[in-house]
Amino acid sequence: MIDPLVTAAREARERARATFSHFKVGAALETTDGRVITGCNIENATYGLTLCAERVAMFKAVSDGYDSFRRIAVVADTEEPTPPCGPCRQILWEFAGDIEVILANLEEEKGRYRMSELLPLPFDARLLSR
Ligand code: THU
User: Fold this and answer.
1) pTM for the predicted model, two decimal places
2) pLDDT tens digit string along 2-21?
3) How many domains, the chain?
4) Range of the domain at 29
5) Active-site residue (options: 54, 80, 100, 109)
6) Going edge to edge, which strands form the sheet with 25-31?
7) Tens of pLDDT, residues 57-83
8) Closest CA to ligand 1's atom 10
């Protein structure tokens, strides 16, 4: 059975603006009360201002007032799982903590991880308070 969160990420991937890389990614973030906020990667002509699908989903969610999350699904059309990049790991950790990360392609799930596996020894706000 396909996890509905993966289906939502696949649908979001269709909206990717991957004009330059042609590498489309979709993400679907689930809040602890069961809402789903999606994101896709958005590229532009300067290349460097690209936003990954995971950060689009997270920033949409934060700006809509959500602050408690359970899982995120990430979908790309790759045989190997496509995990969040380094900057996305930092943002996911800081705003969602040790959530589950589901990696999938267009046909099947490729793996489930916890953020603490993907980002061991994180830098975060705990270190700033003294
Ligand atoms: N990308 C994502 O959106 N998420 C990932 O997890 C990996 C990379 C995007 C950024 C860029 O638009 C394209 O994929 C190629 O790197």
Assistant:
1) 0.97
2) 999 999 999 999 999 999 99
3) 1
4) 4-127
5) 54
6) 36-40, 25-31, 69-76, 100-104, 109-114
7) 999 999 999 999 999 999 999 999 999
8) 52
